[in-house]
Amino acid sequence: xxxxxxNQILKHLSKFAKNVSSDSVNVSTLKGEGELTNLExxxxxxxxxxxxxxxxxxxxxxxxxxxxxxxxxxxxxVPIAVSLDEVQVExxxxxxxxxHQSGSSVLPSYGSGGRYGFADKVIDGMTVTVNxxxxxxxxxxxxxxxxxxxxxxxxxxPLWQKADLRQTRLKDVDRxxxxxxxxxxxxxxxxxxxSTCDQALTPLRLITNQARCRITIKKKLTDxxxxxxRLVLLMDDLLWVLTDSQLTAAFHFIDSxxxxxxxxxxxxxxxxxxxxxxxxxxxxxxxxxxVQQARGSGSSQGRGSSSGGSxxxxxxxxxxxxxVFSKYDVPETSYxxxxxxxxxxxxxxxxxxxxxxxDLSGGAALQVTLAQLEIDFYPYHLAAGDRGHWVKYSTxxxxxxxxxxxxxxxxxxxxDTLNSSRxxxxxxxxxxxxxxxxxxxxxxxxxxxxxxxxxxxAQVSPLKGVVATQLKKLMSSCCVLRVxxxxxxxxxxxxxxxxxxxxxxxxxGKFKLPTQVASLHLEFTVYYFPAATDFxxxxxxxxxxxxxxxxxxxxxxxxxxxxxxxxxQRAVLTDPPPPPSYLDVHLEAVMPKVIVEGLGEHxxxxxxxxxMHIQASRVILSNVRxxxxxxxxxxxxxxxxxxxxxxxxxxxxxxxxxxxxxxxPICHKFVRxxxxxxxxxxxxxTDSPLYETISNMxxxxxxxxxxxxxxxxxxxxxxxxxxxxxxxxxxVPFVDAFPVSLWMYIKPKASLSVATTIxxxxxxxxxxxxxxxxxxxxxxxxxxxDEEQLRSGxxxxxxxxxxxxxxxxHVPSLVSAQLNHYQYLFLMRQLDVITELTSYLTxxxxxxxxxxHMAGVALARENLGDTLVLAAVVPQVDVSLVMxxxxxxxxxxxGDMESFLPDxxxxxxxxxxxxPSCEVRNSASDHSxxxxxxxxxxxxxxxxxxxxxxxxxxxxxxxxxxTTSVTRQPSSTANDPAGVNGPMMxxxxxxxxxxxxxxxxxxxxxxxxxxxxxxxxxxxxxxxxMSDTLSVRSDLSSDSDNFIMVNIETDRTDSGLGGMxxxxxxxxxxxxxxxxxxxxFEEPTPSEVSDVTSSxxxxxxxxxxxxxxxxxxxxxxxxxxxxxxxxxxxxxxxEECSNMGYDEFQSKFSSRCRGWSESMEAIEPCxxxxxxxxxxxxxxxxxxxxxxxxxxxxxxxxxxxxxxEVADLNLTLMMSTVTNLVDLIEDEIVPEPxxxxxxxxxxxxxxxxxxxxxxxxxxxxxxxxVWLPKLLVKRNLEGVFTLLPQxxxxxxxxxxxxxxxxxxxxxxxxxxxxxxxxxxxxxLQTTLAKMQEDKERERSSRGFSLxxxxxx
Length: 1352
Fold this sequence. Notes:
This protein is α+β, with helices and mostly antiparallel strands.
């Protein structure tokens, strides 16, 4: 009996093991026990059994001892126990990919191939226990070892609990399928990897605690083949400490395998994807529909009635087993990873890679905490299929909506492209006219009108039928990453021993979002066709959605991240750099917030804020241009921004404040992108027959638009101060809400021009080839006729150089701000922090990337890519400076002055007022302030605060995406000649831009303020706050639709999740729905507002002066340590009010943007131009370095210089306002003198004395008028001002000079065009001469020649 059993064991074991003999098998028949020793497993069968990827193979597998325990009488309920002592496995990468052993079959080499029976149940239910497993992995770049201890493979029930063996399987006889539930767990895992070709790379080590892998296998009952699998890896809390050298090693290890993995993925798409596609339920339904439609309508109806009766009978008799099977079914193969908490600690290694800041020179560490990290991978998903069965996935989330819209857009593009290839002489099929539903008849050219694709297979049009049939086979490989909550702590150093504080973290708690909503949701999708089908597919897509997140501005953390990232960049850099991949990127952040903390404690300053919050309702970052021209980020919106830039001469002029050595402010790439001339490839040729066109189209045939321009859109953006004691912890507005769009282009590097290479690349991992570098952007120096005309028309001498990074910001609405003295001090200290931060950032970047003694590639100084240009256009900036009243002791005047402005409910004239202002009489005799005395009413303020916020004046008429709900009103464009706020015009850049640039020569007088007013205009805010301010902010950003999109189905039943709750062991807490926006933002009800305003209103009386700057243009250039800021504006108006109520000012301030329109066009323009240049100087050997705001010595000595021009400006101010302005800009520390040179020309100043005279006998003051025809104001490094009168030039002489300059410029353009024509003529003559020589040479080769005649 024992010998018979031995023979059966040897018979089956010989499939898995080699050199098995009866001596190595000990069997106790009655006890049901057996032992095998020193087994060498079959590598081929084991590789097939484990379904290893085709780029990996097992070379050796040994088992020292195997114990078996079989309960013969309970085989149906008790599994066979197999115990292994030690297992050693050796595997290596394949130099060439392995071929699939089974070909297109899904049957394993060890299977019987028969119907699923009792023996298969026993084998599938076995329990395997392994004491230790040692896996050795070898590749050409590194060796790795994996040590696992206490491994257990057990069968579980669908709830993943221990149960009877019969409860660990679910069977559906009607489907002919079976579900098996297995769990693989281990106690510890130790991973160690070491490079074999570069000994300088640090070994990589990782130790994990207990983990379990839950596997759901779906088999066919007919042949036991595996149809699908769901694998879930559950990790315990993980703690991992990584240094930059270990990250570098990890990158090299992954990079060495990337090519093999990519080839294997492509191979699996050709083989496995075909089987997976046929097994998908959705595809089977489509095939069934095709079969029914292929048959006659009569038989179809008969079958329909028969199948309907059978389906009704089956549904009525459906058992609970079938329902449970559907609940835990595996529709498609998927892989999942889940960890409750992961703590990552990043440390920097000693050496020159550390930051030079004194607090970071000794090293620092950064902690990253991820809570409930989930990674889902679906390699074989039907692109048009439903995602409802995906694990914990909502089909209404942002990435799902974006992916569906992108696929529909691709279908439309493909149909339109193929439709243009239809021709009458080669029709694909001919159908009677009455069968065509898209058009009443076919045109003479054979073309049919295109209809939306995807209407089913019953498309009569051959084109639609081809497209629909082909797209039904389109598959996708999707990876989904979700993080429920995360936190990046600030860097910790030996000097910073305080409790770790948050640097970047999720902010779901403040908005009371459901716990199921992930703070971070990322999707990466790649599309493909199974088998070797070469047909156009959508480009790869990367979607990222960030729910409320806050960032705390911390200079040390930013410096550490910069040095840490630069060290990694240098270590992994290759020369030449790899070609950029074509990828669609779309990022959306909901309610992001940046917190800027103040320096020090100022308990005696009640109006001094502690923090500043920069917030936005939604931020979109994308490199994809939507087809709808009304949406932000479209080519039409870029054209609108360029049109706005044409109206200012700063971007295209060579006169002051511009210089010939400056960079081009507006990159030519933006113009080419707006006109569609930077496409990466030409559209497919469609003049061939349809079949020929399809056969010639590759998978990337429709990847046309360039993807190297990023678009950032904030809707809207606002700034507030917090922590003001006088405001009782309520927010104080600083900058009112406004939308902003930012376009960014990073020029790719063709080569790094390496200065020196320290570490040689590993053998077999040479530098990547450069092919395709020009795929995304053509060289900017190519001939471009219109751009050359634009440059010549703007007066630029030749072509200006372009920076490595170009950014262009456009604000289509009013930017309104307020500022008091203590907020000004807060901003000045932050300016000192930013100055120190930028100095160290620049120094660390240059030092790390060019250091000759660091591992990796040392870059040349000119190839660092540290040149940047930021250009911005703002139609109007209003800065309200809040100051104490001129008569603070006379409170009795407050009752008359606080209601000076019209009632808050009337906003029709706010665009004329702009800010709380007064009606000023300009006559010298009776210069007085006309006051409108109205009793203050709390209800009037409340009505203004609680009304819905409308942003029709804030944004150009572009409808918001589906995630926002904004009350829109029709906006008038009568006063909008620029078209910035009007409907999107049909822009012809070839004509309009040229005309706009040429018209710049005719002159737009422009202007700006002095340095202090410039700083103040950028940082205005109110000194104190009232309770209504929060209501204004809440009303601004509390549209509930902003957050409905993150309301993932929280009340989804367990069956809706497909039984995934038990699979992931997620606590099923009661789901809380998203609250209405008023509750999320704590927006008070009208009754609550009345109570709050009555008890919390501030009765302060203030003095306000508002500066209105129209058509502001700003350009900032950076070249390493050097930088230049150029500012220019046209028209400036000053409005002042000496006494008014603080609460009324805040109510008017919140309504300013709603009533804004460009009404300053009629005002006589002025000219204000500023240019601030900063350059760095090296410190001498004995020179003491200056210290920054933190006390750290600055690495370089920064020398600023200000130059400006002020012309045609008339101001009328009261003496109390001038005195208050001097007090407002007074700093708390003694600043370094700023050298400057200001040219003042035709400037008038009228000063009116409104202060109480010191003498009671004073008859009254007479206004003082000052006229400066032309004056040069200089200031040196010692702070000494010098006034130099200049000779005033005659206006007629100036006009003559301007006309002469214009003629010279026209002459220069004509000469330039003549030179170009002459060069083209010479080129044509050379080409003609060569052609003539070729013809003569051809004739001579034939044996005769013609007589030569000279050319005329």
